[in-house]
UniProtKB/TrEMBL annotation:
Gene3D superfamilies: 1.20.1280.50, Kelch-type beta propeller. The lineage of its organism: Eukaryota, Metazoa, Ecdysozoa, Arthropoda, Hexapoda. This is F-box domain-containing protein. Residues 360-382 have a biased composition (Pro residues). GO terms for molecular function: ubiquitin-like ligase-substrate adaptor activity.
């Protein structure tokens, strides 16, 4: 008797179905017979429950899809994406070349490939930062910004409303006499046959401002209206996350209100009455909250909200690496620093406060990111810093190169500054002779890092060389010796740099040799470890624990999970959410790089992350991605 696939037991057949993509291939299996339909339904439900359980147990893994076929979508950020059945639709976005797109792409989740629909109708304007939601077979696109085509002009905000009919493959524009102003960075969600907009960065008349207004679009008549809202409202913001809680409630998380105003709060909107009511949500376990919840992707999986973000606030800043101080040079204590000639008084300044003025210009803002994001905090400047060139030194800023004796107007001889507790030597030692060696430059622990870091704020007592000539005369400094000291200091700096480069090269070669040796050992013992793992799995009868490497790249995106199941409590209790504690700071091997302004949607038992913007810390270049990452539960073979 010939055996067929139907001869297999249900457990084996269901395991085979679980290896298929949970989209169109699984739908085809469900259409074969009643038995296969029941098994396919069980597989789809189990994949969703496994993802929710994996978020609780932190049993997750990242997978990246490498695109080798054509057509291929261009790299972009600040785009809009939405899920419709077995496809992810992506519209617009911006590139790193001051351009915005108006193209529509469809990513087939079954075949893992991009498709460019050649649509008809009235195309939307090229823009980024728009909202895109799906309702039945329609995609509703609203708002956004686009780059200005003339120099010295800001970006342009857009208030266009477009509807894309997926079945007819056609765009239509709907201009209304009454509606929201041009905006970007707003959030949107669908409730029954209505789309609810909240917040955003808006243009009212000629003013740009953040908003906390609510607008409602009737998706059947495509008519806007503004509902009545209670007096208690969230602060104006943009870049927040919004999700539907049932049919009559909305949850808003995070956002930003401008420079240095990042919100980590939560608000619940009750839409059951004629006057909609905002309620502030209590947050539990705040130590596990995401630090910057406004420019990173987020989505909901059942009663869980998943946010990708940095592991700590320091990951959001651009911190320059500190230079290695020369050997044999120790850091002076505070008493010795105060005894130096010309040291700045410590009276009005607080202890431990950096010697940086408060009115320094902020570092260069990111390009292509209107509206402007919050300016990053001043970088931490550990000290002491070494190798400051004489061009940036000033006699009033503390100890400097040795100076020949001279006489001021009062006739009192000025002795030469020398190293020591008091910085002086006896007048008898000022006899003429060969020029002495310049004393070492010792900076305070909070001085600027190096002379090459021109983008960092300078000390308030530093001046340019062309501006300190009179200052040098006032302090009786012989400018003829300045050139010799400058050349000597320059040669010494070059010598120190060569020694440092040799040391770094030797350390790099030793590290590479060690890594090669470890790889050879891992390959040699790989088969032995796999066999041992198989034996342990068979003996326990369960799935193996996820293996997380000891060292995971710190520039990857971490996973933050928030439980929102207690937002609608019974018995008159106050609504609350709770952030879950993650393992390994939320980092998992294979996580996407530290990209911002990317999108994440919830598929069938998996999360799909696309695009984003990454700032290169070593240069001013902007790196834009077109990679697709999947966050799912690892498959365990029992």
């Amino acid at each position: 008797m010939a055996a067929s696939i139907n001869s297999l037991p249900n457990e084996i057949l269901e395991f085979i179905f679980s290896l298929l993509p949970p989209y169109e291939p699984l739908e085809h299996c469900a259409a074969v017979c009643k038995r296969w339909n029941l098994l396919a339904t069980n597989v789809r439900a189990r994949k969703k429950s496994n993802l929710q359980k994996g978020l609780i147990d932190f049993n997750l893994c990242w997978k990246e899809i490498l695109q080798e076929s054509t057509p291929r979508i261009a790299a972009r950020f600040a785009h809009a994406s939405s899920l419709h059945r077995n496809s992810m639709y992506v519209f617009g976005g911006a590139s790193s070349c001051d351009t915005t797109f108006n193209d529509l792409w469809r990513f087939d989740l079954s075949r893992r490939e991009w498709i460019r629909p050649i649509s008809m109708g009235t195309y939307p304007s090229p823009k980024a930062g728009a909202s895109l939601v799906c309702h039945n077979d329609l995609l509703i696109l609203f708002g956004g910004w686009q780059h200005a085509y003339t120099p010295f002009h800001m970006c342009t905000l857009i208030d266009e409303l477009h509807v894309y009919n997926i079945a007819e493959n056609r765009w239509t524009i709907h201009n209304q006499a009454y509606g929201p102003p041009p905006m970007t960075g707003h959030s949107a969600s669908v409730h029954r046959n209505k789309m609810i907009l909240f917040g955003g960065y808006q243009k009212n008349m000629e003013n740009l401002r953040t908003s906390n207004d609510i607008w409602v679009l009737d998706l059947e008549r495509l008519v806007w209206k503004k509902p009545a809202v209670s007096d208690l409202k969230p602060a104006p913001r943009y870049g927040q996350f919004q999700m539907a809680i049932g049919e009559d409630h909305i949850l808003v998380l995070g956002g930003t209100g401008g420079v240095n105003r990042v919100f980590n709060d939560a608000w619940l909107l009750d839409m059951q009455r004629d006057t909609w009511v905002w309620k502030r949500v209590q947050i539990k376990n705040k130590k596990s909250i995401v630090t910057h919840n406004w420019c990173y992707p987020a989505c909901n999986v059942g009663s869980k909200v998943i946010v990708l973000g940095p592991t700590s606030p320091n990951d959001f800043q651009i911190i320059r690496p500190n230079r290695v101080p020369p050997m044999g040079r120790t850091r002076p204590n505070a008493e010795q620093l105060r005894n130096r000639i010309g040291a700045a008084p410590q009276g009005p300044m607080h202890a431990g406060e950096p010697n940086i003025p408060r009115n320094n210009p902020a570092p260069p803002a990111r390009a292509n990111l209107p509206p402007p994001p919050p300016a990053p905090m001043q970088p931490t400047l550990p000290g002491p810093s070494q190798g400051l060139s004489p061009k940036e030194s000033n006699p009033s800023s503390g100890p400097g190169p040795s100076k020949p004796p001279s006489t001021v107007n009062s006739g009192v001889p000025v002795v030469e500054a020398r190293p020591g507790p008091s910085g002086l030597r006896s007048p008898s030692s000022t006899a003429s002779g060969p020029p002495s060696r310049s004393m070492p430059i010792i900076r305070s622990a909070f001085s600027r890092q190096s002379s090459e870091d021109d983008h960092l704020p300078k000390r308030f007592n530093q001046q340019n060389l062309e501006q300190n000539h009179m200052a040098m005369v006032a302090f009786s400094v012989d400018s003829s010796n300045h050139a010799s000291n400058a050349s000597f200091s320059h040669e010494r700096k070059l010598e120190l740099l060569r020694k440092l480069e040799d040391k770094i090269s030797a350390m790099r070669r030793a590290k590479e040799a060690e890594q090669q040796q470890q790889q050879q050992q891992q390959q040699r013992h790989g088969i032995r470890e796999v066999n041992h793992a198989d034996r342990s799995i068979n003996s326990t009868g369960g799935s193996p624990d996820p293996v997380t490497p000891k060292r995971v790249k710190r520039n990857g995106l971490a996973i933050f999970v928030c439980d929102v199941s207690n937002l609608l409590p019974t018995g008159g209790a106050e609504p609350c959410i709770e952030w879950q504690e993650s393992k390994n700071s939320g980092l998992i091997a294979g996580a996407p790089d530290h990209y911002t302004f990317s999108t994440m949607i919830n598929g069938n038992g998996e999360l799909i992350v696309f695009g984003g913007l990454n700032k290169n810390h070593k240069s001013e270049n902007l790196c834009v991605s077109n990679s697709v990452h999947f966050l799912t539960v690892p498959t365990a073979v029992v």
